[in-house]
Design brief:
Keywords: Signal
Domain SCP: 157-283
Shape: elongated
Organism: Pseudomonas alkylphenolica
Strand content: 25-35%
Helix content: 25-40%
CATH architecture of the largest domain: 3-Layer(aba) Sandwich
Signal peptide: 1-28
Protein name: SCP domain-containing protein
Structural class: alpha/beta
Length: 286
């Protein structure tokens, strides 16, 4: 059984009058008050560093982003150990704020750009008397990724959309190719490989047991005459994984190869792994 294999690595990024922001229930914690104030601030256009910033989506309070106030070690590694794999992260330490209102005033004055940055999706807040630590982050996995079935369905639609028109993969020209059909055995083999890479923290076509794509397809029950495999790591959505493959001549060639008629694809995530999320797409010709 002939096999074509391709892999891809991914790298793995104001002071204005305000309406009252702290009219909150007395039982709300200072940390939660601060998050609510920040989200109220992000919910309206603001002037920051001499420019207008559009509305930003609210930040989600995450317990595993709540680092000790005095923590001074590696930020990403600490978050990964807590189960949060960050694409981008920033930590801000405040000293001298005795309540949430004072903490917000300091953040608005000195860190408005960070508060309004649209790349951040989550927040963690820790307080020790008049000291605060605010952690802003975006996880590897996009919030709208959905479950494995919806991701696989999206990958199938996107690969067929790519094959529907002629394409230049590096210096190799491909005519439009007929759409691929989903194969359950290839999907199972792709899921197994993505899960193994995520849980055993490696990135390669050859797995730790020495098996290659054709071996995994055969073990899953696929009896085709030719196998191709694309893998990727670090992308948070099917569209990002597909964009990376299409930008790589070898991966693009696998996607456009008219010999292949069937496909299976899957992702697996493990926030404690180096890349956080791993993708596998297996192509077959029966």
């Amino acid at each position: 059984m002939r096999q074509a294999v391709r892999c891809s690595r991914v790298v793995s990024l104001c002071l204005i009058p305000l309406l009252p922001l702290f009219a909150l229930p007395v039982h709300a914690s200072g940390e939660r008050q601060l998050v609510e104030a920040i989200n109220d601030y992000r919910a309206q256009p603001q002037r920051c560093e001499r420019r207008m910033v559009k509305v930003s989506t609210p930040l989600v309070l995450k317990p595993n982003l709540a680092l000790p106030v005095g923590y001074g070690g590696g930020l990403r590694e600490r978050l990964k150990a807590a189960g949060y794999q960050a694409v981008t992260v920033r930590s801000i330490r405040l000293v001298g704020a005795y309540d949430a209102e004072e903490a917000f005033d300091m953040l608005q004055s000195d860190y408005c750009a960070a508060l309004l940055d649209t790349q951040f999706a989550d927040i963690g807040v820790t307080r020790a008397r008049n000291e605060w630590r605010v952690v802003l982050a975006r996880p590897v996995l996009d919030a709208q990724l959905g479950d494995g079935r919806s991701a696989s369905k999206a990958l199938l639609a996107q690969v067929n959309a790519a094959r529907a028109k002629p394409r230049l993969c590096g210096r190799q020209r491909f005519a439009a190719a007929r759409p691929l059909t989903w194969n359950t055995a290839l999907g199972a083999a792709a899921q197994q490989h993505s899960r193994t890479m995520a849980n055993r923290n490696y990135f390669a076509h050859r797995d730790p047991d020495g098996d290659m794509p054709a071996d995994r397809a055969w073990d899953a029950g696929y009896r085709g005459r030719q196998i191709g495999e694309n893998i990727a790591a670090g992308q948070g959505s099917p569209s990002k994984a597909m964009a990376g493959w299409l930008a790589s001549p070898g991966h693009c060639a696998n996607l456009m190869n008219p010999v292949f008629t069937q496909v299976g694809a899957a992702y697996a995530a493990n926030p404690r792994s180096d890349k956080g999320v791993y993708w596998t797409m297996l192509f077959g010709a029966p």
